[in-house]
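Take a specimen:
=====
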Amino acid sequence: MGMVLGKITVETPKHEVVHTGSGYEVRKYPPCVAAEVTYDPAEMKGNRDGGFTVLANYIGALGRPQNTRPENIAMTAPVITSGEPENIAMTAPVITSGEPEPMAMTAPVITSDGGGQAGGKTITMQFLLPSKYTKVEEAPRPTDERVVLREVGERKYGVVRFSGLTGDKVVKEKTEGLKAALEKDGFTIKGPFVLARYNPPFTLPPLRTNEVMIPVE
């Protein structure tokens, strides 16, 4: 019931608020570890969230975990989707055998668009692992070769929070407004925005927590 009503009960990324502007704030996030999968949404009937099951299987959220150590990993939030093309460096997948490690669901799930073949696009989706994992080697290794682990460095984002649905029109408006506010206050935009969603899709829209995040310096 709590998830339907928008209550966030999972770990969210630690951060420091370094600036508060008019309707937004700038946050600095520490390094973390991400699990990610890259895929062509056309192969999943246009589903931009099609990598979700692959990553959920890795952490054991949907049953037997597809990784190598027996340990629960708690879910974090939000789910993050990029709205503009972005290249993300990845580590090579490490595939080993052994006993699986059950991990509770993690988030954010970060989805990034990249250039695909024949003018199409691929999507990279991420789960940020809980903060207890600070290095790739500390996290359980995936047994599915599509899943890779990488370390995400310290980063700074301008962030605007809003409720309701996250359709293209709303996200575009929030992004343009945030960009204008950041530039007015002297911040330099460093890359494409991402959309952070803190609640599952069955949460009542007015009770959802969403954020548009833009990397800045």
Observations:
- Residues 33-152 form one domain.
- Residues 168-184 form the longest helix (17 residues).
